[in-house]
DNA sequence: CTTGAACTGAGAACGATTGTCAAAACCCGT
DNA sequence: ACGGGTTTTGACAATCGTTCTCAGTTCAAG
């Protein structure tokens, strides 16, 4: 109860580690796991503990500043998306991700929830497929970027 | 290439264990984890190894004879649903599950995939919320069934 | 009955994630 | 700049769902 905070921030402190995680996320286009991001940080010369990466990603996801979803294998993967509610079209081969919006879907979800008396609802909706390049190239060398 | 099978089944053998797993699934309304189902089997007096439960559930899910989805925590949960493509409205409190269909959503997903040149697409769509009973009762005693 | 393939299960192994806790970094008032 | 209380960090252990191993069991065809 000794709250004497001058600036009403969220109680988070800006640290080198958090900046590093945010930076690597900004550089990556695809959804990546905590471990992959940790490896990328090491490659970039940034020394950040794995536990810190996990903690930071969770916080950012909770804040809504990044998106998190689960792969088919149940692994959590993260991505710095644009703001606002949206869903994803993800290539299984190369990981390329397209953000998509579907107002009709949002309405449908709301309607269905109401019809069944559910409140405080959330929904998860992701589409997985093979992108044109991967279907084309034959998936021999999964490429992550293209000019 | 020595295929001399008289009855063209899927190469699966009907065993006591598989019947037991199917039976417990038929008795349960909610999505349940492999471990929970294993516990239920033990309670019911059926002796089935945990590994077998995992294997059987995976096979049934692959066959499409049961549905599998992941909780927010990433745990796989299973349910014997009606046949046909559908999605779920799941209560976070009591686990009550309603199967829902959304033709418009299916069309939207297809359209979006095509627009971006994705092929061989799948989608996951689940709605989580609090059902009327749980919102009402105050969630003091999460109940799984009700007359 | 014989026999090879499918199946099972106890326990080890695995891998992602979380917990621990002392040390380090930080903020703020002095 | 200094000190003290709070937050954050990170090496490591621990947890926990899931998968692997492999010898023993069951099955069904012949
Ligand atoms: Zn996103
Ligand atoms: Zn949505
Ligand atoms: Zn279902
Ligand atoms: Zn669908």
Q: Would you give an account of this structure?
A:
2 copies of one chain form a homodimer. Chain A has 147 residues and is of the alpha+beta class. Chain A has 2 domains: 13-81, Arc Repressor Mutant, subunit A (Orthogonal Bundle), CATH 1.10.10.10; 83-142, 2-Layer Sandwich (Dna Ligase, domain 1), CATH 3.30.1490.190. The first copy, chain A, has 5 helices and 6 strands; from the N terminus they run H-E-H-H-E-E-E-E-H-E-H. In chain A, a hairpin with a 5-residue loop joins strand 4 and strand 5 (97-100). In chain A, helix 1 packs across helix 2 (34-43) and helix 2 (34-43) packs across helix 3 (50-63). Chain A binds chain B through residues 70, 74-76, 89, 91, 98, 100, 102, 104-105, 108-109, 112-113, 116-132, 135, and chain B through 70, 74-76, 89, 91, 98, 100, 102, 104-105, 108-109, 112-113, 116-132, 135. Strand 6 of chain A pairs antiparallel with strand 6 (119-130) of chain B, so a sheet runs across the interface. The complex binds zinc ion (4 copies). One zinc ion binds at residues 85, 87, 105-106, 123, 125 of chain B. The structure holds a DNA duplex (30 and 30 nucleotides). Chains A, B: Homodimer. Chains A, B: Its main location: cytoplasm.
